Amino acid sequence: MIEYVAGGKKTVYHSREYRIMTNDPSYHQQLAYRATFNFDNATRQTPIPGNTDAKDRFIRADYYREWLPEPKNTREAIAAILAIVRNVSVPFGAPNRPREASIILSSHGHRPHEPRLLFRADDQP
């Protein structure tokens, strides 16, 4: 992941552990916020943030990502990722919907030699 923060400073996060990214705050702040949650023994009753705020969407996306089963093929992997993206997207008409929420860009590679780039604009079916 590549993040540009205030002042144009570029930070590169390059590792398999970096899989989720949303809008503000900065990525290192989101990781610090994520560290305050422990979903090791999660159940259906485990509370997860449900606001439209980017940091809450980050936690939700990471929570669901942690529980994904290993996909059997590329189609299952893409379906799983899109299910999470749809779950954390900010719907039209939601309070405080940021302008940036209209575009979702996600990358996926089921196999290292088959990287895929998926682009979805949520104002298009």
Task: Describe this structure as you would to a colleague.
The chain has helices at 27-34, 54-66, 74-88, and strands at residues 2-5, 9-12, 103-109, 115-121. It has a two-stranded antiparallel sheet. Strands 3-4 form a two-stranded antiparallel sheet. The chain is globular. The longest helix has 15 residues, at 74-88. It has 125 residues and is an alpha+beta fold. 29% of the residues lie in helices and 18% in strands. The chain contains three helices and four strands; from the N terminus they run ββαααββ. Strand 1 (2-5) and strand 2 form a beta hairpin.
Distance between the termini: 27 Å
**Structural class by helix and strand composition:** alpha+beta
- Shape summary: globular
Rg over C-alpha atoms, rounded to the nearest angstrom: 15 Å
SS summary, helix count: 3
| Helix content estimate | 25-40%
Q: Show unreliable segments.
A: 101-111
Secondary structure layout plus pairing:
Layout (H helix, E strand, L loop, with lengths): L1 E4 L3 E4 L14 H8 L19 H13 L7 H15 L14 E7 L5 E7 L4
Antiparallel strand pairs: 1-2, 3-4
Helix pairs in contact: 2-3
Descriptive tags:
125 residues, alpha+beta, two-stranded antiparallel ribbon, two-stranded antiparallel sheet, 29% helix, globular
